[in-house]
Design a protein that fits this description.
Two copies of one chain form a homodimer. The first copy, chain A, is of the alpha+beta class and 212 residues long. Chain A has two domains: 88 residues, 3-Layer(aba) Sandwich (Glutaredoxin); 110 residues, Glutathione S-transferase Yfyf (Class Pi), Chain A, domain 2 (Up-down Bundle). In chain A, 54% of the residues lie in helices and 7% in strands. Chain A contains nine helices and four strands, in the order E-H-E-H-E-E-H-H-H-H-H-H-H. In chain A, helix 4 runs antiparallel to helix 6. The longest helix of chain A has 22 residues. The first copy, chain A, starts with a strand and ends in an 11-residue tail after the last helix. The interface between A and B is large, with 48 and 48 residues. Chains A, B: It comes from Aliiroseovarius salicola. Chains A, B: This is Maleylacetoacetate isomerase.
Chain lengths: 212, 212
């Protein structure tokens, strides 16, 4: 299979972690989100992904899957071990909710196309965009610090789940934009535990062959 | 169980549809998102939902679940029939992706707290907020029109799935803000089919006892 990816996209980063955890091989096809006015807007790519976003997973038979969390759901069905979601329905809903605090409440509002549009519509400069991004990360991390478990190795239990897979890329963004992470000691500890695993470290932006 | 809800919240609307489809009874507890500076910010509510968002589901034993799609995942486990996601992994990922085009790419960027923050940070007035919301709905609906199936009764197949559950509340918002829906004939047809079902119609904002 092929993963259309961009080194700095945190949605693509999530899928790279999941592929590594499940030891599924995929060819990485870079889609540069900035160069050439954004390669995600080419007709060839937009035909696969009508949202003009990364990632996209293309299966051997040409089937195309979009949306990072939907792709990870597919990978979970393909290779159920190691499981990225618990079987207990309540715990599973709690892991999903923690993942969604990142994937719904923070990431979409801070997406490149959204901050670009802030520039187009309101003349937001680099400082205003950074302030905007940090505002939503603070709100989300504050909630997430309370939603994760307290005495476990990872966000939920002693193995990585979808919550960790969403947290680590968002933390990467937070560091990139200079957010003060000291109010979130538990999240910071979880990030450290995750990045000690090769599945996470090898999925990091700087470890990608298209990194600049 | 209790659902903390607000009549106009499209995330709460999704959960109301899912409860109805699965014929699960829940007591509706209104949380007014505008009155009193937003009742979602009270300590009593924020203790249950640290994201200060609706909906929240509280189980009989006091367990609290947050995030609409995580709550629906729990309801799916509790009452598997009728299924809101197909069993085939590829089709399941496609339904999830369509749901996430709404729940990740449109709804979070148009959330009340985001448009409020546009006002605070950039002085966006009512017209600018409307323009912002319509911009993201257009982008999302354009993609979604291509992602749903063509000759089925609902978005995928002949029974409602999570994709329909996400579409209908977003279409409610689109109509509220006067978006031209003529470029999306397939989505418009799906909305009509859904709203003919009591499970959808009874979950609509105007049918709620806290509607104004």
């Amino acid at each position: 299979m092929k993963l259309y990816t961009y080194w700095r996209s945190s949605a693509a980063y999530r899928v790279r972690i999941a592929l590594n955890l499940k030891q599924i091989e995929a060819e990485m096809i870079p889609v540069h989100l900035v160069k050439d006015g954004g390669q995600q807007h080419t007709l060839a790519y937009a035909t696969k992904n009508p949202s003009h976003l990364v990632p996209t997973l293309e299966l051997e038979d040409g089937t195309v899957l979009t949306q990072s969390l939907a792709i990870i759901d597919y990978l979970e069905a393909l290779n159920p071990a190691p499981a990225l979601l618990p079987t207990d329905p309540v715990l599973r809903a709690k892991v999903l909710a923690a993942a969604h605090v990142i994937a719904m409440d923070i990431h979409p509002v801070n997406n490149l196309r959204v901050t670009n549009h802030l520039g187009d519509m309101f003349g937001a400069d680099a400082d205003a965009k950074k302030e905007w991004m940090c505002y939503w990360m603070e709100k989300g991390f504050e909630a997430l610090e309370q939603l994760v478990q307290k005495d476990t190795k990872f966000a939920f239990g002693d193995a990585p789940t979808l919550a960790d897979i969403c947290l680590v890329p968002q933390y990467y963004n937070a560091r990139r934009w200079g957010l003060d992470l000291s109010p979130y000691p538990r999240l910071t500890e979880i990030e450290k535990t995750c990045l000690a695993l090769p599945a996470f470290a090898n999925a990091a932006p700087e470890a990608q062959f298209d990194a600049e």
